[in-house]
Amino acid sequence: MTTLEELYHGNINPSESESLCNNPEYKNLITLTAQAQDKLVASLNSEQKKLFDNYIINAEELSTIIEVDCFKTGFKLGAKLTIEAYT
User: Fold this and answer.
1) pTM of the model
2) At what angle do helices 24-42 and 46-85 cross, to 10 degrees?
3) Is residue 19 within 8 Å of 76, Cβ to Cβ?
């Protein structure tokens, strides 16, 4: 299959970067963030936990919007560079 076909069939997921997942600094920060979140949640009362859950949901949605925009921008830049290389 071509790369375009692989992408269409869901075999390529640009948001799952193998290099990122193998990055020790990334792995460390994920661990530290999870530990800090667990400690924070344990210290919250019920109302604060609901507020924090809403914060997390909104932050994840914001992150997704930013990631999609960055992907689109990078893809467009790559296409422009390719066009310029052949003109």
Assistant:
1) 0.74
2) 160
3) no
Q: Which residues contact 39 (CB under 8 A, 6 or more apart)?
A: none
Distance, CA of 69 to CA of 63 (rounded, Å) = 10
pLDDT digits (tens, 9 = 90+) for 20-69: 888 999 999 999 999 999 999 999 999 999 999 999 999 999 999 999 89
In total, the chain counts a number of residues equal to: 87
Contact status, residue 71 vs residue 13, Cβ threshold 8 Å: no
